Amino acid sequence: MERTNFGNFRKTHLLGTNNLFNEFMRAFDLPVLRYMFNEGNMVGEEVRDYYEINEPGQKFLLNLKEGLAVFKEDYYAKKSAIDIAERINLDVDMVYPYVKNRTYSSDGYHKRPVDTKTPFNDFDKNSGVHYLSSFQILKDIQMDIRFETLKK
Q1: Domain that includes residue 50, residue range
Q2: 29 and 9, same structural domain?
Q3: What is the dihedral of CA 104, 106, 108, 112, to 10 degrees?
Q4: Do 66 and 83 share a domain, yes or no?
Q5: 6-54 tens-digit pLDDT
Q6: Starting from the edge strand earliest in sequence, which strands make up the sheet with 36-37, in order?
Q7: I want to staple 16 with a disulfide (CB 3.0 to 4.6 A). Which of 20, 53, 131, 144 is the partner?
């Protein structure tokens, strides 16, 4: 295995699009970009097909292939705050505000990439969303808990 184009590697060995992969990388704080190169230019904050990925990076990603498959299924599935709470084993009252915050701004504007058919004022714990990871919600909650602990 030698350094190769990430787009070719992703299409051959991994599941999903760059967008899915970037969401996976963010949800788990994966250091994937440190294994990538861009012909003397800076590598951005998200993976791109034209980046080159070295052999250690390829091995790192191949070890995460099963996790990526689980993430992909969760990310694309329609789910509610109740479903997410069950998946990450937390109380729905804790989870719901994070789901709503990832779906809508405080002014009621829809945020991307999360998709819902429920209007802002009708959005509740049962409202379905797509393109949102239960694992990202868990990470958001854990980050807030850690920062709150620092304040004590």
Answers
A1: 4-74
A2: yes
A3: -30
A4: no
A5: 999 999 999 899 999 999 999 999 999 999 999 888 899 999 999 999 9
A6: 4-5, 52-53, 36-37
A7: 20
